[in-house]
Every structure is written in structure tokens, then in C-alpha cells.
Amino acid sequence: MGLSLGQSLTLYAAFMVLAVLGVMHFVQTAPPLPQAQCSEIVTPMDVIRGKLVREPQKSILDLWNCLREYKKDNWWHTTMGIWGMYVIFKIFGPFGAGTSMVLSVLIGALYDEWSEPNTRYSLMAHLIGVSGEVMGGCGGWLMSYCVGREILLHFAAEKMATLQAEMGKFQGSLFRYMLFIRVSPLFPNWFVNYSTALIGMPFSYFLAASFIAIQPAATMSIAMGSMLRDMGEDGLDLVKMGKRGGMMAVTMAVLSLPLIPADDYAKGKAKLKRALGFGKAESKGE
């Protein structure tokens, strides 16, 4: 028997309360923050109220100064705290909307372990950011699968109908459709996490498409964070920033190639051949 709307909302609220209690327990049992560097950082309630999105530059700088000092002696607490917050905000969908990029920039600014020598891009930061995004998305998918059907049908019926209609254009390739809606601006990220569990999308497709689609955005935001870190430590070096920006642009372009639909790739390849004259040569040969 399916859950009613009231039961679904009650369970959703109960899961959220448990998450908040877990965060409170983690904070209370963690080593204390250095007061000199951490007096003005945003709190979890500030994030819920949207301060992290309204004032991202100040929020990131305050958090960076605080956590950089805290991380020196408490690496695991810092890492698990940031990663856990990332995952929780992704799981609870609209309540964490807009925080992903800010947290990714913060991760890029905070971690320099396993850095690539030319760009100083941290593979550790990439691992933390991408795994948080993917695991949080999977948590949202499972949350919706368990308790979200009636909530979405009641509060987002029009978006659900649009999702189903778009799905009809990709018959025979559910994975392509999953990849399309993951990068499409038609649907918010949190809605994709919640809704795809209810339209028959296999979890394996959701997981694989999420992992592929997040790479360019994660690379961009983490690279922005690493540049901010370098500016804070070494000052502004336009030549170095230009070189790193060019290398990151090439990297993002390569990472974006798997996101091109197969049909569009074939059409583009055919147009390029015609523009270069290969099509005419083949026709004459025939």
C-alpha cells in the first residue's frame, strides 16, 4: 500500500530532524574551532536561511580562514564535516538548492593535496566534491523512491508531467535521457534527483549519468576555489591565472565531450565534413 501525502510529509520531516540531530552531535563532539579565525563563519542555520548563497564571497573567505586553521590539526573532522554537509544538503533537495557550487569552491580553496603540478588542481578536492555530489544525489533518489511520490505529485505535478513528456522523445535510450536531464536547465538539480526515482529510471543509469555529468561543473568550481586560495596566499598573478585558466578550459572541454548526444555528434561530424569538402569528394567518387 502506498503512502498518503500526510504520511510522506511526516516521514520526510522525520528524516530531516534525524539529519539535523546528527549534525548537532557531530559539531558538539568535534574539537573546538579556533575563535580568532572562526568568529564570523556561517552557521548551519545561516545556510538554511540562504546566507551562503546571498553572500558567497564573504562566506567562503570566512570559512576558508577558519577551516584552513582548523584543518591543520583536525584533518578528518574537517573533511568529514564538509563532505557530510554537502551530502545532507543534496539529499534534502530544495532546502540545499544553490549550495553545491559554493561548497565546491570552498573545497577547492581548502584542499591542495594530490595537486597536479602545472595547474595545482587538487585531485583530493575533486574526489571530495564529486563524491559528495554523487552520494548526495543518490541519497535524494532513494529518499524520493521511499517517501517522495505523493509529495512530488502534489507540489510539482506540472514538472512531473513535463518530465514524462520529454522522456517520450528518448524511447530506447533511457541512459541518454538521464544524461540529458542531468545537464539540462529545464529542471533543477534537486528535482532531477527526486523525480527520476518515480519515472522508472534505473538506479544504475542515474548513478552513471550523475557521475559523468558533474565532472565539468565540479572541475570549474574547484578550480575557482584553488585560484582563490593562491590569490590569498601569494597575491594576484595574472600570467599564472591565465595559464591555469586556459588549461582548465581545455580540461572542461574534454570532460564535456561525453555529454554531447550521439545524434548531435553525428550531425556535427557530417556538417564538418561538408564544410571541409569531404562530402563533395565522396559524391564525385561515387
Automatic annotation (TrEMBL):
User: Where do transmembrane segments lie in this chain?
Assistant: 6-27, 87-111, 123-143, 203-224, 245-262
Q: Which domain of life is it from?
A: Eukaryota
List the keywords (alphabetical): Membrane, Transmembrane, Transmembrane helix
Q: How does it sit in the membrane?
A: Multi-pass membrane protein
Q: Please verify whether the record's keywords include Transmembrane.
A: yes
| BP GO annotations | autophagosome assembly
Q: What is its main location?
A: membrane
Domain VTT positions = 100-226
* Cell compartment(s), UniProt: Membrane
GO cellular component terms listed in the entry, alphabetical order:
membrane
Q: Name one Pfam family in it.
A: VTT_dom
Name the family: Belongs to the TMEM41 family.
Q: Which protein, by its recorded name, is this?
A: VTT domain-containing protein
Q: Origin organism of this chain?
A: Polarella glacialis (Dinoflagellate)
